[in-house]
Design a protein that fits this description.
The protein is α/β, with parallel strands linked by helices. The chain contains 10 helices and 10 strands. α3 packs across α4, α3 packs parallel to α5 and α4 crosses α5.
Length: 272
């Protein structure tokens, strides 16, 4: 789904934002990205959204190498993503319905499809009764739910939330993450950047910590394979069939076939 392979990013002013980052996020995962201010979290998101270009390394999104993607293809990439911002970024002159519908209209959706889909999504986030209200008439938590509805309306495969709880109270913060959790259960990949460690601890999701442009911890990273050599004496080799003895000569335990391991460990090889 999302792969960063040896990705580094240095800005023109000399700031080293990311340094040799390797991250794999599978389809349907829910991942928290945590770290101090200036750690590289925002740059990580910008590289996913193709707002920035990596200085080195490769980035793959939904099976497509986006590292050197042409500018005209970027809008199509972004259509697979829904973005939730900390400051909501709603259009004040538009109603709640119009703010959410706008995301569908810009891609040419038909009016009938827009109405049906927007009302459904507003119901999903608990704001169907606020469809005719303007942003100024809503609480901070309600405005964030409008932002989330807008991110969801085009049925993206990935939702990226950049500090989505930064401007709302703790109780509403929990509700927003819980809502994202429910969306994740439907198969949508969720990436949430946050500095609220207490909130992260309440949800048992994968946590990647970035510090000084490097991944310093990853609760969901696969464990590295460790090869453990097996010492085999000449006497042991003498009792193993020739075709297996040739196979296990000068190899590690990780490279042995199941047949060869059984022959050694279980001692079931008969003398010829």
């Amino acid at each position: 789904m999302i792969q960063f392979k040896n990705v580094s990013k240095t800005y023109p002013n000399g700031t080293h934002a990311l340094n040799n980052v390797n991250i794999n996020i599978e389809k349907g995962e829910f991942v928290f990205i945590v770290g101090a201010s200036g750690a590289g979290k925002s740059t990580f998101l910008k590289l996913i959204m193709k707002e920035e270009q990596p200085s080195s390394g490769e980035i793959t999104i939904n099976g497509v190498n986006t590292t050197n993607m042409k500018r005209r293809k970027v809008p199509y990439l972004r259509r697979t993503m829904g973005i939730v911002f900390q400051d909501f970024r709603l259009i004040d002159k538009m109603t709640v319905f119009e703010n959410v519908a706008f995301a569908m209209r810009v891609i040419g959706a038909r009016p009938r499809a827009v109405k049906k889909r927007v009302l459904y999504i507003l119901g999903l986030v608990g704001l169907k009764d606020k469809a005719k209200c303007r942003p100024a008439e809503l609480s901070g938590g309600e405005q964030q739910r409008v932002s989330l509805a807008r991110a969801l309306v085009n049925n993206p495969s990935i939702i990226i939330a950049d500090e989505p709880t930064g401007n709302i109270d703790p109780e509403m913060s929990f509700e927003i993450i819980e809502l994202l959790n429910e969306i994740n259960k439907q198969g949508t990949t969720i990436i949430v950047v946050t500095h609220e460690h207490e909130l992260v601890q309440k949800f048992k999701n994968r946590v990647i910590e970035i510090n000084n442009g490097q991944v310093v911890s990853d609760s969901g990273a696969p464990a590295e394979k460790v090869e453990v050599p097996i010492e085999i004496s000449q006497e042991d080799l003498a009792e193993i069939p020739e075709e297996i003895a040739e196979e296990i000569a000068d190899v590690s335990a990780a490279e042995l076939s199941e047949e060869a391991l059984q022959a050694i460990v279980q001692g079931e090889v008969e003398d010829e």
